[in-house]
Amino acid sequence: MSDADTPGRGDAPSPGRRTLPLLGPDAERTPRGGRAERADAARNRRRILAAAADLIAARGVGALSMDEVARAAGVGVGTVYRRFGDRAGLLYAVLDDRERRFQAAFLQGPPPLGPGAEPLDRVRAFLHALADRTDEQLDLLVMAEADSPDARFDDGSYEVYRTHLETLIARVRPSADAAYIADALLAPLAANLLRHQRRTRGMSLERVKAGLDDLVAGLAAP
After folding, report:
1. Fewer CB within 10 A of the terminal residue: the chain, N end or C end?
2. Among the three residues 85, 107, 123, which one is the final residue of a domain in this structure?
3. Dihedral angle at the C-alpha atoms of 23, 27, 32, 36, nearest 10 degrees?
4. What HEC string does the chain produce?
5. CA atoms of 105 and 59, how far apart (whole Å)
6. Which residues bind DNA (predicted)?
7. Could you tell me if 103 and 210 lie in one domain?
8. Residue span of the structural domain in which 69 resides
């Protein structure tokens, strides 16, 4: 499967398990019922998600409330509840919004993260970008991965990551077990491990990326 062939799926988030859209950069989420989203509703959604993301960054996941998000977004709290159901639904939607932009960047964006660069450079750029993406929403991702022992692997996002890396690895080294190596390169970026490294062991993000570079260098070895 090529990068451009990665399948997509999407629907409005629910208060249960996370559902990731896997769409292109300009696609808008279609609400339940299949009707296109009105322009004013789309604006409100973007304002709510931006407000929630800012509040989480400033105060952490535990301090987030629907009332505060509504005030920060300049909408009624009823609008937030109608759109996202409850606090869990809003948190997953914040994850989905960031994930959508991340996937658009590595599937369709400029090189070296997007198409156009050498495969090895794209592998390195992808892992660096994924480290940034995971660190940016670390508490939310830990919460999502805690849904079940297999939550990380059940997400559509993990399959997209793995397929993307497997495709690039096969181009770098056709004789390699690309599927296994893709899993091995993704393993260090599990949210709970990265949180332990960053907050318990005091590792900088630069150190994490340097370690990833050492792993990627093995692909280029004779």
Report:
1. C
2. 85
3. -150
4. CCHHHCCCCCCCCCCCCCCCCCCCCCCCCCCCCCCCCCHHHHHHHHHHHHHHHHHHHHHCHHHCCHHHHHHHHCCCHHHHHHHHCCHHHHHHHHHHHHHHHHHHHHHHCCCCCCCCCCHHHHHHHHHHHHHHHHHHCHHHHHHHHCCCCCHHHHCHHHHHHHHHHHHHHHHHCCCCCHHHHHHHHHHHHCHHHHHHHHHHCCCCHHHHHHHHHHHHHHHHCC
5. 27
6. 65-84
7. yes
8. 28-85
The token duo for 144 is 């999502």
Phi, psi of 185 (to 5 degrees): -75, -30
Is the same domain home to 120 and 209? Answer: yes
Single-letter amino acid code for the residue at 129 = A
pTM here?
0.75
Instruction: Measure the CA–CA gap between 216 and 188, rounded to whole angstroms.
Output: 12
Q: What is the pLDDT of residues 84-101, one digit of tens each?
A: 888 878 888 888 888 999
Helix (H, G, I), strand (E, B), or coil: what is residue 29? coil
pLDDT tens string 91-140? 888 888 889 999 999 999 999 999 999 999 999 999 999 999 999 999 88
Looking at residue 144, its pLDDT comes to 80
Give the CA dihedral 176, 187, 102, 30, nearest 10 degrees: 100
Which amino acid, one-letter code, is at 23? L
* Count, residues in the chain: 222
Q: What's the one-letter identity of residue 140? A: L
Q: DSSP code of 188?
A: G
Q: Which two tokens mark 136? A: 């940016």
110 shares its domain with 72? no
